[in-house]
Structure formats: C-alpha cells, structure tokens
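The instructor's notes for this session suggest beginning with a concrete chain rather than abstract definitions. Hand out the sequence below and ask the class to guess, before any prediction is shown, which regions might be ordered.
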Amino acid sequence: QVQLVESGGGLVQPGGSLRLSCAASRSIPGPYAMGWFRQAPGKQRELVAVILSGGSTNYADSMKGRFTISRDNAQNTVYLQMNSLKPEDTAVYYCNAKRLIPGAENYWGQGTQVTVSS
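After discussion, reveal the predicted structure:
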C-alpha cells in the first residue's frame, strides 16, 4: 500500500501562484507514473500533469506553459508549481500514483482544494 498526502492548496487571486506537494509513504518501484488530476464541481476528473519514473512529463493542453510538475526522489514527493492561475483552475486537485505494470493498483490522495478568486 502507498499513502499519498497532498498539501499546498488554498485561495489565490487570478494571476497568482501556488505549489502543491504530494508525499508518498514509500518509494514506488519503477516503472511508475505519478501525477495530478483535478475535479471541478459538476465536472469529470481530468488529468493535469504526469511525470514518469524515467523523468518524462506530460501536461494537459490548458496547463502547458503555466504548470510544472517535478519530483524529489529522495523525499518520495511530487510537486506541481502552478503559475498564472485562472478562475477556471478552481478545483480539488488529487495526487495519483500507479506502477506501470499489469494489474497494478491505482493510488489516490485525499485531494486539496485550490480556489482562484478575487
């Protein structure tokens, strides 16, 4: 089992920045993917960004150039730096981790609220 704990959400004005953190309870053997998803009220959960064990990253189109995903392997932690935030970025942000092998369990954090409002 892997527990994921998110932190760093909050209220920010449009154009502002936040950094989310996701700490895993233990290291995850590769190959794996760790990433961030978000879910706004009345909408489906959507991918924000993902980082693979090899270091490659992928972003949803609307986040490219504004969000950056990174990791600290020593701390088993993944970060999401969010800049130029918009009201439409308001959502609960969830951390996700999954080994990229058949039958692997999908792990989720409890979510952290990000609200972008003036």
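Then share the key points. The chain has a mean pLDDT of 95. The two ends are 40 Å apart (CA to CA).
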